Amino acid sequence: MKNIAILGFGTVGQGVYEILLERREKIKEIINQDFYIKTILVNDINKERDIVDGITLTNDFNIILNDPEIDIVVELTGALEKGFEYISKSLKAGKNVVTANKSVVSAYFKELHSTALENKVKFLYEASVGGGIPIIKPLREEIMLNDIESLQGILNGTCNYILSRMFKEKLSYKDILKDAQELGYAEADPTDDVEGLDTMRKLRILSSIAFGVDIREENIDTFGISTIELCDVEYLEKNNSTIKLLATSTFDKNKGYTAFVEPTIVTNEDYFSTVSMAFNSISFEGSNVGPLKFYGAGAGKLPTGDAVCRDIIDIFLDNTSIEDFHLKESTSLNHEIKGSYYLRTDINEDLISDLKNTNNLEKNETVDNNSILILKNISKFNIIDLLKKYNIDEKEYFLAKIGY
Ligand SMILES: NC(=O)C1=CN([C@@H]2O[C@H](COP(=O)(O)OP(=O)(O)OC[C@H]3O[C@@H](n4cnc5c(N)ncnc54)[C@H](OP(=O)(O)O)[C@@H]3O)[C@@H](O)[C@H]2O)C=CC1
Ligand SMILES: N[C@@H](CC=O)C(=O)O
Question: 241: closest CA among 340, 356, 108?
């Protein structure tokens, strides 16, 4: 018999609980033994919860840590330092851990893998990237057989939901964000979603696995979607295009890596334009397997709960290896990347004349008292330096890469 403790009973915790209860007989049959959710940890013990009799509800983690009958700790709190403490102590106590907490996996990637290895227990985090999409497990399998040199993805359900509805319904960004929060897609602090931090953490996790390189959070250049306005949407729509918050990374073992999270303009014919609402997609190319694309619900109670339950079953079935990731150091090549960009700002003649002098200005249009500038063959960092030079605050412009 196996016993599970669930830490956190919010959107995902409740999803896991419901799936494990609903599929209990089927899972028992597959794993060939009985299992129970023994304990659930929450912050606020006084909140009303719909939990079946026999499960202990607590706000004291030590009850779980010191319970020798608990085999698997499922960490779904969303907290960074507390989450790290819960996971780390559980692994050290010889308990297998499953988590959906990308903040912790990204920030403590190396430490947590080493702790799991030292204590001969499993540490799985399929739900930390792409919600319900199976991506961590297939990627871990493919790196045994392939070199991977680049990956791209829409990795945040909240942003994709907001952008899709802005294009479809012409509603304001703020109104749609409220809906995303109500639907349980957004993080406790939605700044993490809309400023690209959640996507950045997911890119850190995927890139670490895909390339075996230590691409740290601070080396991923991250821009979000919070300054997008309906005038951007209308302009791009007229140009047969849409915007996605895209995460991209590349690795060349002789040169280094690039890693960006940025709003990216894609044409309506591009594959990523078809990924809408809270769906996510990740693509990469393996040297043997060729191109692979993964698509599915990127957030939400049941899709994410499903991914967590797959990890739990893999542990039940002993279907996964315990491995360390010896991430190599490498060099960031982000500053060497040049491309085409869309920039919308207040009209600023000095900025425009500076850009004309550098030959980087391809198009300059005035729309609703804004300048819409199309820039070519330029580094994003040069654009940002220019915006700083003219004291244009980051809340007053919207910058998006054209293509990827
Ligand atoms: N929502 C989604 O679609 C997805 C979420 N994730 C990740 O899954 C994790 C959980 O997300 P979600 O369910 O949305 O979060 P919620 O905010 O809905 O739920 C968090 C739960 O954790 C509890 N909790 C928070 N902090 C602590 C703490 N320090 N100690 C004990 N319990 C705590 C809360 O208790 P109380 O109920 O008392 O407030 C609550 O039950 C996060 O890491 C998130 O990034 C991953 C993929 C998709
Ligand atoms: N807030 C996240 C939840 C899943 O990871 C998102 O919107 O993608």
Answer: 340
The three-point CA angle 128-130-131 to 5° equals 70
Instruction: Check: CB of residue 383 under 8 Å from CB of residue 401.
Output: no
Ligand nearest to the CA of 199: 2
Q: How confident is the model at residue 368 (pLDDT cuts 50, 70, 90)?
A: confident
Provide the whole-model pTM.
0.97
Give residue-wise pLDDT tens across range 28-81: 999 999 999 999 999 999 999 999 999 999 999 999 999 999 999 999 999 999
Best mutation site among 185, 191, 201, 246 for ligand 2 pocket (most ligand atoms within 8 Å of CB):
185
Rg (C-alpha) for the chain, rounded Å, is: 23
Ligand 2 neighbours (beta carbon < 6 A) = 131, 156-158, 185-187, 193, 198, 298-299
Q: Coil, strand, or helix at residue 287?
A: coil
Q: Where does a domain end: 97, 128, 159?
A: 128
Q: How far is the CA of 176 from the centre of ligand 1 (A)?
A: 21
Give me the CATH number covering residue 113: 3.40.50.720
Interface confidence: ipTM more than 0.95: yes
- Chain-wide mean pLDDT for the chain? 96
**What CATH code is carried by the domain that includes residue 381?**
3.30.70.1280
Cα–Cα distance for residue pair 226/208, rounded to 1 Å: 27
Q: What percent of the chain has pLDDT over 90?
A: 96
- Whether residue 366 is contained in a domain is answered as yes
- Let me know if residue 384 belongs to a domain: yes
* C-alpha–C-alpha distance, residues 261 and 245, integer Å: 7
Structural domain of 99: 2-128
Residue with CA closest to ligand 2 atom 4 = 299
Catalytic residues, which ones?
A: 202
Asked if 365 and 232 count as a contact pair (C-beta separation under 8 A), the reply is no
